[in-house]
Structures are given as C-alpha cells and as structure tokens.
C-alpha cells in the first residue's frame, strides 16, 4: 500500500430539525393546547484514533464527509429523531488542522482517543415550550441550528522513539533492516526510500523500542530539491535522532563533513526544535575503510565536523557495532522514561502538600455555628 501522510477533507455536520407548532385536536379534549415537539439534533463528526490504520489513504479518495440532518418535530408531543454521528477512523499520530485559520483541532496520540471535528446543530423548540399563563395558544416554534462546516488538513506524524537522519545512500535502510523487523527496499542508488518505514527493535523478550526511517535529505531540500522537507514531520515526535554518515562514499570528490553540515543546515531551516533534540552521530560503512586508516578517518571527521556528542562506529551491512548501539539507545530511552516518571511523582507530591498545607486557623475555613 502506498504511504499517504497528508490529506485534505471537508466535514459537514448535520443541521438540527425544526420545531413544530401544533395543537391537540382530539375528541373530548376541546382545550388540549399546544403539542408541537422539538426537532432532532443534527449528526456530529468525530475523529477516532485507531492503531490498526497506518496511512491516510482512505481520506485521499474520500474528501467529503457529511452527517444527516435531524428530523423535524411533529404534533402529539412527537420529537424529531436525532441523526447518527459519524466516526472517522484515523491513524495514531494524526494532526488535524483547520485549513483556513491554521488552528490545531486535535492531535491523536493514543489509541481510542476521540475528538470532535464538527458539531451537529441543535434542534428547534416546538410550541409546547412557549406556552405560559398569558400565552395559552403559542404559535411560535424554533428553527433548527446549522451544523458546523470545516475544511481540515490531516498530517500524519509517525510515533517512534528513534528517528534516522542522513543523506541518500548513507545506509539508513540497511541499518533499520539490520536491527529491526522492518524490510525496506535497499539498492545502490539514491532515494531508494520513498516513504517512512517503521521498525520494532527488540533488545530482549520484554524490552523494545520503535525506530523510524525517512527518505534522505540533500542540500537545497528547503527549496524542494530531492524529496524536500515533506517527511521531516515524522521526526518531530521522536525522542532521539541518529545522524547516520557514510564514511566511504562511492565518489571520491564527496566530502562527508560537508554533507553532514549541509544536512544540519537543512534541519534548522525546517524546525529549530529538531536541532535541539538529543542527536547521536553514527559513522557507517566502516567495513569499507581499511583497518589501519579507520581510527585516523574517524578522528579527522569528528574534529572537522566539530562534534562533541556521542559517536558510534558501525557497519550496518555486517552488523558490526549495531548491538552496542541498540543497547545504548535502549538505556537512554529507559533513563529518560524513568526521569519523566520521577518528575511526575514529584509534581504530584508537591500538589498533595499544597492541599494539606491549609491553615486551620484561617477564618475562611472555620465552621460556622
């Protein structure tokens, strides 16, 4: 199935039904009075996050979603039937944005999450609501309200713990296939990867994390060169970025340092927050570098690149260095998760202390006799 991560749709909620102005005309009830019922509520449109859906392909071909209107009220105190709501199932990680105002309507981050996209109109009142001691025979009735109508833009941002970043042919697809269950297309030409790939990396039976591979970036991507920036959104939710660099390019005139700096520059143009994310340097294809020159080439690259963070030397083709990198990633993610849990526990403790620190002598809390 083709990976679809963007779509534009229009959602139209149903209108409320009109109220009814009616009077009782039954035998032996000469003064039955008003008996017009209310109109039914129009159908609303909801978004539901579903982990069993991977792309937005259904919304690429089905662009308009319209709910039914509520039924009008009738006599004999009969209320109109409300229309059924429409539930649109979307992948977990979908960002829903109002296409006109740019307002974020919903961010589906958990399975089963439900968000309102367009509210159905309320039904109008029947004349039974307008009767009073001075108005015994009201002929007023309420009109049903219109349902909301919106044009929405759907953006899918895959949920992964780790994101792979690199130039075309840096070995990202080979790496993700070496450490996970993902099987992306691998070939000896640029832009083999045309859409994001997700893989589950199993460290042990009960320890795992998710890794995402996106198409490679090249210099000038912000101007649309290559595949542009269109897939970088999938790295925004990741907790760690692996910058994979090819230390043994096919062409001798290619400078890995220049390519690495150009990639960081393109990253800044797209989103400054991506540059601030934890990022590790992964030097790949070291199996193609002679053993006696490997240490010198790695040291020269790190110095010229000006890198001061973690550095890992691997060969994704023969899996050298991959187990050590996977273990380090899991330890980093596990420590980050523990830190977040401790922070939440500290916050809950402080809130509990704030509640228990009420001064009993405060006159606002004294019991009145």
Describe what you observe in this structure:
With 369 residues, this protein is of the alpha/beta class. The chain is elongated, with a radius of gyration of 30 Å. The protein contains six helices and 14 strands. It is 22% helix and 21% strand.
First-last Cα distance: 73 Å
Please state the structural category: alpha/beta
Largest sheet: 6 strands, mixed
Q: Secondary-structure element sequence?
A: EEHEEEEEEEHEEEHHEHEH
Uncertain segments: none
What's the count of strands?
14
Overall 3D geometry?
elongated
Spatial order of strands in the largest sheet: 10-11-9-12-13-14
Mean pLDDT: 82
Query: In DSSP terms, counting alpha (H) and pi (I) runs of 4 or more, how many helices?
Result: 6
The oligomeric state of the chains shown is single chain
Proportion of helical residues: 10-25%
Q: Please give the radius of gyration in angstroms.
A: 30 Å
Proportion of residues in extended strands = 15-25%
Identify the notable features of this structure and list them briefly.
alpha/beta; six-stranded mixed beta sheet; five-stranded mixed beta sheet
List the helices and strands and how they pair.
Blueprint: E1 6-12, E2 45-50, H1 57-61, E3 64-66, E4 86-91, E5 94-98, E6 104-107, E7 114-118, E8 149-156, E9 162-166, H2 172-179, E10 197-202, E11 208-213, E12 240-246, H3 256-270, H4 272-276, E13 279-284, H5 291-305, E14 311-313, H6 322-356
Parallel strand pairs: 1-3, 2-4, 9-11, 9-12, 12-13, 13-14
Antiparallel strand pairs: 1-8, 2-7, 5-6, 5-8, 10-11
């Amino acid at each position: 199935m083709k990976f679809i991560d963007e779509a534009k749709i229009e959602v139209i909620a149903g209108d409320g039904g009109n109220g009814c102005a009616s009077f009782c005309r039954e035998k032996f009830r000469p003064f039955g009075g008003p008996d017009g019922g209310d109109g039914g509520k129009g159908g609303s449109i909801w978004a539901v996050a579903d982990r069993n859906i991977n792309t937005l392909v259904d919304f690429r071909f089905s662009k308009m979603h319209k709910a039914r209107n509520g039924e009008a009220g009738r006599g004999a105190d009969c209320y109109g039937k409300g229309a059924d709501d429409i539930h649109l199932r979307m992948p977990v990680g979908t960002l829903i944005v109002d296409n006109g105002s740019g307002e974020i309507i919903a961010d589906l981050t958990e399975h089963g999450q439900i968000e309102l996209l367009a509210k159905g109109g309320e039904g109008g009142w029947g004349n039974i609501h307008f009767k009073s001691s001075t108005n015994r025979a009201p002929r007023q009735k309420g009109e049903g309200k219109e349902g909301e109508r919106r044009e929405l833009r759907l953006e899918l941002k895959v949920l992964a713990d780790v994101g792979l970043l690199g130039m075309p042919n840096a070995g990202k697809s080979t790496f993700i296939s070496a450490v996970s269950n993902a099987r992306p297309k691998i070939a000896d030409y640029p832009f083999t990867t045309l859409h994001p790939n997700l893989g589950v990396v199993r460290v042990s039976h009960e320890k795992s994390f998710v890794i995402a591979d996106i198409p490679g970036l090249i210099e000038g991507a912000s101007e649309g060169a290559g595949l542009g920036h269109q897939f970088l959104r999938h790295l925004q939710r990741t907790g760690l970025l692996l910058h994979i660099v090819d230390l043994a390019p096919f062409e001798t005139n290619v400078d890995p340092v220049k390519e690495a700096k150009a990639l960081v520059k393109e990253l800044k143009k797209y989103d400054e927050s991506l540059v601030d994310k934890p990022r590790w340097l992964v030097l790949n294809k070291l199996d193609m570098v002679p053993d006696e020159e490997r240490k010198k080439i790695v040291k020269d690259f790190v110095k010229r690149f000006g890198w001061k963070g973690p550095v890992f030397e691997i060969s994704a083709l023969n899996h050298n260095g991959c187990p050590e990198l996977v273990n380090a990633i899991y330890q980093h993610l596990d420590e980050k998760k523990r830190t977040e849990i401790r922070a939440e526990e500290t916050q809950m403790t402080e809130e509990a202390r704030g509640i228990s620190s009420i001064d009993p002598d405060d006159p606002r809390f004294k019991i009145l006799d």
